[in-house]
């Protein structure tokens, strides 16, 4: 340590802390020549009366200053035992604190976007929203009056909103673990696919491009993520459909009687009147649920795959006859509306889950039981936080190192 300059005056106006002990040197660190060794010696040297002085540099008093009062020798303090560093709890290699931070950031971003949308409606948009709200109230009142007419009450007794499948094909009650896991993975992949798809649709200049290692067409890093996630989503769906038929649970979501249609109308009227149909999801879906699940799995999903494949880099661009038969503009007109349908379905699905028996519904799919406790809700909150965290983390800065393992990533 360099000694203080001889005769350097103390900085005026900076009073020394009286009696402040000198900071001990780091264990094992050599002392500077001339530094006092008496532990506990005062750090500040006395100065002229009435002139406050700054504390001297530890271990290097100014020349000519009176010697510090000797202190009684003390035994060397015992070296404290180093505390064991606790490993942070991680999930998929990410600390819980980081997941929570990204989750809250994602929720804040969604809330900000929603508020910006509301503000952007303007006067005309607000009038349209108000008119739609009034129309919805009128529809609810009219439907409630209609379903309580004598002939409608009699008809709805015959078609209460659901039908029982034949005993020979009736599935076991409850949801097996494979169905619950694949339901969650489907939600996760769809959230990531939706985010990356919107980036592809709205991007002006991609932040990076990806190219196969063996060479080929360059695509944006966002499109690479979108198509890669599509593969996982399709694999998850294929496994789900195979297990659905192998285990006999197919009769839950595949209509097996023409009664499904009048029962679906009955269930729809009950939903529109806010007099919810009876919920027996643990053993059987109502008819409108069955039709919607069938459409999502066996109609909308294949449409999304076929139209997405046509627009992807995997489509054979040299096949002129095939391209003429199925042009890319047609695929675009199918793909985006299909995405809107998925978003609408998820919104209505989640709304009904929370308004038609939240605890039982969440326990069915997240905890695998028919109880009314909060176990399923807690699992749902945890799963939602993981989804939001991964969606928030799916940025080019994070994606590029992963994409680089499967090809070449460059600025252009």
Explain the overall architecture.
Pfam families: Ni_hydr_CYTB. Residues 175-367 form the Cytochrome b561 bacterial/Ni-hydrogenase domain. GO terms for molecular function: electron transfer activity; heme binding. The structure is a single chain. This protein has 412 residues and is mostly helical. It has a domain at 159-410: Transmembrane di-heme cytochromes, Chain C (Fumarate Reductase Cytochrome B subunit, Up-down Bundle). Helices cover 54% and strands 3% of the residues. The protein contains 12 helices and 5 strands. The protein has helices at residues 96-120, 122-147, 150-158, 177-202, 221-246, 260-272, 287-311, 320-325, 328-355, 358-367, 375-393, 396-403; strands at residues 90-91, 94-95, 209-212, 219-220, 407-410. The protein has a 3-stranded antiparallel β-sheet. A two-stranded antiparallel ribbon has the order 1-2. Helix 10 (358-367) crosses helix 11 (375-393). The longest helix is centred in the C-terminal third of the chain and has 28 residues, at 328-355. The radius of gyration is 35 Å and the shape is globular. The two termini are 53 Å apart. Residues 1-75 and 89-94 have low confidence and may be disordered.
């Amino acid at each position: 340590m360099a000694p203080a300059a001889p005769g350097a005056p103390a900085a005026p106006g900076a009073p020394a802390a009286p009696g402040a002990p000198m900071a001990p040197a780091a264990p094992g660190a050599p002392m500077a020549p001339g530094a006092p060794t008496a532990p506990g010696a005062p750090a500040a040297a006395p100065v002229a009366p009435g002139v406050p002085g700054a504390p001297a540099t530890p271990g290097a008093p100014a020349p000519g200053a009176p010697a510090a009062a000797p202190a009684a020798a003390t035994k060397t303090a015992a070296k404290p035992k180093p505390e064991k560093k606790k490993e942070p709890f991680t999930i998929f290699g990410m600390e819980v604190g980081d997941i929570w931070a990204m989750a809250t950031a994602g929720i804040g971003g969604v809330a900000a976007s929603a508020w910006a949308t509301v503000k952007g409606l303007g006067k005309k948009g607000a009038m349209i929203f108000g008119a739609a709200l009034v129309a919805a109230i009128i529809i609810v009142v009219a439907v409630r009056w209609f379903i309580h007419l004598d002939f409608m009450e009699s008809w709805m007794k015959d078609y209460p909103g659901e039908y029982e499948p034949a005993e020979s094909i009736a599935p076991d009650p409850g949801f097996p673990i494979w169905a619950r896991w694949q339901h969650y993975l489907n939600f996760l992949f769809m959230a990531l696919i939706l985010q990356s798809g919107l980036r592809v649709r709205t991007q002006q200049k991609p932040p990076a491009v990806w190219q196969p290692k063996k060479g080929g067409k360059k695509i944006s890093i966002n499109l690479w993520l979108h198509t890669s996630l599509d593969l996982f989503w399709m694999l998850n769906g294929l496994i789900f459909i195979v297990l659905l038929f192998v285990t006999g649970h197919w009769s839950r979501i595949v209509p097996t009687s023409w009664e499904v249609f009048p029962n679906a109308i009955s269930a729809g009227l009950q939903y529109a009147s806010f007099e919810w149909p009876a919920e027996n999801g643990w053993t059987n879906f109502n008819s409108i649920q069955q039709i919607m699940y069938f459409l999502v799995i066996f109609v909308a999903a294949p449409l999304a795959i076929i139209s997405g494949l046509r627009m992807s880099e995997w489509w054979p661009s040299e096949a002129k006859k095939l391209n003429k038969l199925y042009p890319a503009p047609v695929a675009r007109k199918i793909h985006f509306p299909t995405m809107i349908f998925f978003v609408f379905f998820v919104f209505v699905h989640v709304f009904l889950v929370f308004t038609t028996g939240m605890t039982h519904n969440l326990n069915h799919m997240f905890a695998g039981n028919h109880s009314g406790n909060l176990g399923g809700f807690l699992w749902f909150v945890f799963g939602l936080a993981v989804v939001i965290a991964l969606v928030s983390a799916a940025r080019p800065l994070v994606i590029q190192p992963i994409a680089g393992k499967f090809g070449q990533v460059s600025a252009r």
